[in-house]
Amino acid sequence: MSKPSIGNLTEQSAKISILKNESWMGKRFYIDQHHVLQKQANGLFKKGHVRVCSTPRAADLLAVAEQLKPQEALCLGVPVNGQISAPVVTRKLQQHSSGCITRTKDDFWFAQGEGWLLIDHDTKELPDPVKASLEAFGGAIGALTKIWPELERADYLIRPSSSAGVYVEGREPADAGGFHMFVRLANARDIPQALQTLQSKCWEQGLAYHQISKSGQLLERSILDVSVGSPERLIFTAAPMLGAGVLRRPPPTVCHDGAAIGAPLGLQSLLWSRQRDINRQQSKPAAEQRLDVFLEECIENRMCDHGETYDKAASIVKARVIDGYLYDDDRLELPNGRSIRIADVLDRIKPGDVVACADPVEGREYNPTAAAVIWKAPHPSPALVSHAHGLIRVFTFARFEPF
Q1: What pLDDT, in 10s, does the model give residues 271-280?
Q2: How far, in whole angstroms, is CA 170 from its chain's centroid?
Q3: Helix axes 310-318, 271-306, angle to 10 degrees
């Protein structure tokens, strides 16, 4: 779907947005009462401000990134209305605030001209075959250059993950391999498709795999995260908050002076899709086993919490997890830490409302605002829409289904 042109931002050089929240975001590390290093993450943006920065070269982007504070995050998109500075609120707060925009695709899109593509590389949970492929290419940068040779002449910035190099005083920091790589792309609106093309090339080179979620869902993954190619998404690249006794020794930042490059060319062969499908079939037995264990855990928890019989609890849990079907007696987890009966949500919701909540399957620990109950077009009755794991899943409510 085409988006309207971005107001007054007609300059073709690359831009990036800074979103400032009313409270801290990102990651915080501290030592608990058992002297164990703990991490607290906060990805909630409720109310704040956006400022668009001109960053024509990697060195300019580096200057912006180094100035970020704990309550600030980057965003690849810019306001659709052309403003370079504006208040930003949630959809719910926007109903009572004039002149504000929301951090959604309705109000953020990619600017015309150059932009920054983000390659988010995370070394956690990589399977051994992918690790072996990375090693064969001489590491992540060697692998990325293999699937996108134009990177050698590109303008880019590599910032270590905010978790990289964090350690307890008196101990050695763990190996830090994750990073954010910002690549200056000739056309910012090519970013989403460029990431999809790179993931296809990862399959061809043994750099992609299927991850199994805690509920047994098969998730297509690679050495880069395609879900970051969205114009409204928060990018946490500021230094983390460190508690007493916690230090950080991150790997060095890399600022590579080069040119804006075009999006990677698509593959002519379908070998990558065959390798993906084979890997998916090989992963299915383990995924089915994980689902069985997860269902039993959820059923037991519901029996314990609500005093229900096994059959009653199983019918509610399986409807939710397998069918995406939510009964009035089921519960939703809210961002404020509370849980609420679905019946109570549906009794109060009005046309036009959006009620943020956690994904009904993955729960609050995954992301407290990964989903929302929505009653607006294109949904004629309330529906729950989740974006967990970078996928869109629509849950239906039993109350509104015909008998």
Answers
A1: 999 999 999 9
A2: 33
A3: 150
